[in-house]
UniProtKB/TrEMBL annotation:
The keyword Disulfide bond does not apply. Residues 8-21 have a biased composition (Basic and acidic residues). The keyword DNA-binding applies. InterPro entries: Cas12f1-like_TNB. One of its GO terms (molecular function) is DNA binding. Residues 90-108 have a biased composition (Basic residues). It comes from the Eukaryota. This is Cas12f1-like TNB domain-containing protein. Residues 173-237 form the Cas12f1-like TNB domain. Residues 1-21, 85-127 are annotated as: Disordered. Keywords: DNA-binding. Pfam families: Cas12f1-like_TNB.
Length: 256
């Protein structure tokens, strides 16, 4: 969304072409209690000082600044979608689908340009601003309540295969900031057993659907009311079932 991944790839290519990657991967560790080992680290750094300073110039600083601004914009954009909705979850807001798809292609093509081209046209800025406004418009007469499960809280440094880590805490901090500004209500709940309890009969009698002798992890079957559930949909509905009595002051249902 913000071009960070593309800029990181280009930065890695720059390091390889300038032999910086080779230098950095061979830096002796400064974390040592031995004087000789620390002296070896200092000597190595002085030997390659000029190459490192030449590489980490204004261009690198500009990339880091762009990454910081991009991360801030991406977080704000994600929260605006949660507050005001998006065309993905609100079909009434879908219009000019083909034209919008063309605009997105043009916006995405910017990130494939060379890093030296830093200027953005006035027309491009206007298009980006119009795109952003779509998620700044909401029903001011309603206060959105966002339910936040504790499954991934304080686990930003835990790497999950196939997923980028470190995002959850950023979103949570931004949600708390928006709550303090009076833009939303944030409710923390314990999401334990949300995908183990049927949301139809509130009985813990679920098992994975079997096909050809293999279990399908994503689909659950309730042996009590015989409803088939998508695991993620079930967890979301269960979180809403937990949040409703908590918000009313009655506490979490005993089954959870």
């Amino acid at each position: 969304m913000n071009g960070v991944v593309n800029r990181q790839k280009q930065e890695i290519e720059r390091k390889k072409s300038n032999n910086i990657e080779h230098i950095e991967t061979r830096i002796p560790s400064p974390k040592t209690t031995g004087a000789e080992n620390y002296k070896r680290h200092i000597t190595y750094m002085f030997q390659h000082f000029e190459a490192l300073v030449t590489f980490y110039d204004f261009q690198t600083a500009r990339i880091r600044r762009s990454n910081y601004i991009g991360n801030q914009k991406a977080t704000d954009h994600a929260i605006n979608i949660l507050i005001n909705g998006s065309t993905k979850y609100n079909k009434n807001r879908r219009k000019n689908t083909r034209r919008n798809k063309g605009k997105r292609r043009k916006l995405n093509s910017r990130y494939t340009r060379d890093l030296s081209n830093t200027k953005q046209s006035k027309k491009g800025k206007q298009a980006a601003r119009a795109f952003k406004k779509k998620f700044e418009e909401g029903d001011k007469s309603k206060m959105p309540m966002i339910i936040f499960g504790d499954g991934l809280k304080n686990k930003s440094h835990v790497q999950i295969k196939g997923l980028r880590h470190g995002v959850i805490d950023k979103l949570y901090r931004q949600l708390k900031r928006r709550e303090n500004l009076g833009e939303l209500l944030l409710l923390d709940i314990d999401e334990y057993n949300t995908s183990k309890t049927c949301n139809g009969c509130l009985v813990k009698n679920l098992e994975n659907l079997k096909y050809g002798g293999h279990k399908i992890h994503q689909i659950l079957n309730c042996n009590n009311c015989h409803i088939f559930w998508n695991r993620d949909v079930l967890a979301s509905k269960s979180m809403f079932t937990i949040a409703t009595p908590i918000w009313s002051g009655n506490g979490s249902p005993s089954v959870f």
